[in-house]
Structure to design on (224 residues):
């Protein structure tokens, strides 16, 4: 049997699944998706900074023996380093990967209080009351990541679109434009479908589809 054939798993008539391939869409939790993405975008021996550690949930399913991982968080006492992702205590061009997963929504959103508490939204610095405040926070973090990354390094940005006052805010589109302005180029995008989306399951009247997915952008720093 050829090496290629050994990599393929057959499931049912006419269906061929290649488990070794990294796919764009994932159904489950962050940890499963990050484990897959890490296979593709974290080289052996890399220096990886998780700038929003949050109990290290990203990395529970990833083989971390291949690279050096540093968890950083302003609020989580379990992080190795307490620091603001807008002012990282690292030298220029000192990391290969920076992962970035800040709060998606302003503290005044209608999201349930227990969800805000889970993500410490009410404690987040300068999260603000509007969607553009959240986007400003993203921009500051991505700009600082650009300084810390080596040429060719990648910034992983987790995000989710949101609706406020029946108005759609397409964060995934805004962040793409923001990254290009800062000097990144879009390398890849992953979609995570949450099997148990937060929020109310019913409503008196529904104006927009309820979101049960989020995105992970992979932005690459140029060599020039």
């Amino acid at each position: 049997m050829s090496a290629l054939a050994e990599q393929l798993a057959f499931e049912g008539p006419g269906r061929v699944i290649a488990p070794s391939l990294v796919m764009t869409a994932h159904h489950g939790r962050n940890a499963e998706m990050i484990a897959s993405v890490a296979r593709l975008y974290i080289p052996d021996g890399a220096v990886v900074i998780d700038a929003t550690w949050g109990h290290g949930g990203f990395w529970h399913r990833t083989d971390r023996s291949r690279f050096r991982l540093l968890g950083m968080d302003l609020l989580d006492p379990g992080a190795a380093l307490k620091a603001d992702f807008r002012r990282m205590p690292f030298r220029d061009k000192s990391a290969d990967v920076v992962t970035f997963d800040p709060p998606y929504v302003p503290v005044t959103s209608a999201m349930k209080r227990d969800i805000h508490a889970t993500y410490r939204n009410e404690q987040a610095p300068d999260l603000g009351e509007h969607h553009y405040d959240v986007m400003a926070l993203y921009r500051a973090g991505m700009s600082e990541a650009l300084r810390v990354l080596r040429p060719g390094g990648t910034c992983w940005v987790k995000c989710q679109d949101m609706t406020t006052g029946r108005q759609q805010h397409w964060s995934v589109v805004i962040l793409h434009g923001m990254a290009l302005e800062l000097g990144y180029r879009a390398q890849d995008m992953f979609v995570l479908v949450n099997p148990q989306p937060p929020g109310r399951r019913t409503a008196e009247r529904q104006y927009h589809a309820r979101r049960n997915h989020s995105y992970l952008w992979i932005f690459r720093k140029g060599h020039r």
